Please model this.
Amino acid sequence: MNLIIKKEQWINLAIVASTLWFMWFAQTHFDEYTVRILNNIAIFTILAVSYNLINGVTGQFSLEPNGFVAIGAYVAALLLLDGDAKEYQYDIEDPYPWVLLLHANFVWALFFAGTFSAILALILSFPVFRVRGDYLAIVTLGFGFIIRIIAINNPEVTNGSLGLNDIPEYSNLYWTGGIATLAVIGILNIIYSKYGRAMKAIRDDEDAAIAMGVNTFKVKTLAFCTSAFLEGVGGGLLAALLTSISPDLFTFFFTFQLLIIIVLGGLGSTTGAIIGTILVIGGSEWMRFLDEPMNFGFMETPAMPGMRMVVFSVILIFVMLFAREGIMGKRELKDLFKKRGES
Amino acid sequence: MIKIDKLNQFYGQSHTLWDLTLELNTGNCTCLMGRNGVGKTTLAKAIMGLLPVKSGSIIYDGKDISKLSSDKRAGIGIGYVPQGREIFSQLSVKENLDIGLLGNRNGLKSVPQKIYELFPVLKEMLKRKGGDLSGGQQQQLAIARALCIEPKLLILDEPSEGIQPNIVQQIGSVIDYLTKEEKITVMLIEQKLPFARKHGDDFYIIDRGSVVANGEISQLSDDIIKQYLSV
Ligand SMILES: Nc1ncnc2c1ncn2[C@@H]1O[C@H](COP(=O)(O)OP(=O)(O)OP(=O)(O)O)[C@@H](O)[C@H]1O
Ligand SMILES: [Mg+2]
Model:
């Protein structure tokens, strides 16, 4: 028994070490294009595993990521741009004086990006989780829209539809990969703690969980705020990767992409969320040709932006209809090596 | 132990419990009987706080708990085995039991050995997923899980429903042990007459949301059965 636990810890350590080594190797050896895709994969891994915590593990259908990612991205961008850099780019309205004063280094910017999202999630939790019922999806859907509208209509803070530009490009694979690794470790620790057990109990049977004394409000709020925090941090990393952000980046489409990722990987499985991210983000690069004009020899098709998304939507429908468990079901990597009969 | 006074409950517009009044004797097994759909499960859920009640009181240990938040009711010693063995299907047997420990008011950290003695089959299946157990095993798990909170009052909603005879028998002897040895008060919702007669001390008959007859189980006459239980 002791030996098995030790072996498992070694395996975990080896996985973490090789991930970090790969990040270093990729950052120093791969071309810019590949590094950018890997950065995307790392950021989307953070988003997918945290989205999966509330949606898959706790079983609370939610549509929040675009809202919290937007908040994280804007908070980080406002903090990373110094006063001068902000001053010249506010073309719609003059920025409020306090906007120009905001400034922080990358670590603090990410921290505030996450914290701000988590606080908003906490505020949303009270009306949503205090009562029984599936209001979360509707509320979070509305929340995403509202955040976008706020970003568009408050140019004194956000520069409106023009968005924020020239954000310092701090994100690299050390940051994105390192934080993704921490996020996965953190989420797995929650899942295997007594809180994680309570989350799964709520998903399986909420009434029975309550009757056993599980404080469902507390547990759901914990899952939701943890998700929001990491989504905020992911938004900050994204802002510092893209160097410019605008409200158009954070439409419902963003959430939809993450939904595809976690459903494909298997709702409830963190391993699945990672695999889903690699397939969808990597695959979507590979399928870029679909959006472009194509020459079939006998006919030519014009450029069809969004064609890739159609393909992913079809995949999503197929998974929902014929393989509802996704790639991993609710299992994790380590479950694959267990003997039959154990769970 | 527990006294329910003039309880009224509605599902939306539909009035389901009508001035329901009953009292359980401490340390006894009281059988709650009645035809399908008369409101037995509704009553159990109301006691657990899983359904809001319109009026009336639920006096437990001298205090009205009808406004107490539902997740606190495990903590004051009310254990609940839902109808249709609602175990956590994706959690292992061990994890199911651990969830029961969360609501333990004595701060118990590990599953008491006694529970494995009552249900030896669970001990062999600790790592198996709840959903992979047989119906009878799931029922045993649901009871074991409720026992992990160390209840003073245990509510069992039709534990023998759709379960093979030898496991029903085993569950019966667990009920006997709990009332006779552990002095736990049991509220047994039951449709099977022989099972109720064998393990019950008292009975209540419910019809259309109110109590229509009650007494010691020996007083459960054929007339009552004919009028309220036979279909
Ligand atoms: N969620 C609900 N919404 C509306 N009506 C309900 C709901 N649950 C139960 N009912 C109705 O309330 C009445 C009482 O149901 P309840 O489940 O308490 O009956 P029961 O005595 O436990 O029956 P059974 O012996 O079949 O388990 C029934 O008429 C049922 O149709
Ligand atoms: Mg019932």
In short: The pocket of magnesium ion (ligand 2) is lined by residues B 40-41, 83, 157 (CB under 6 Å). Chain B has a mean pLDDT of 94. Residues 2-228 of chain B form a domain with the Rossmann fold fold (CATH 3.40.50.300).
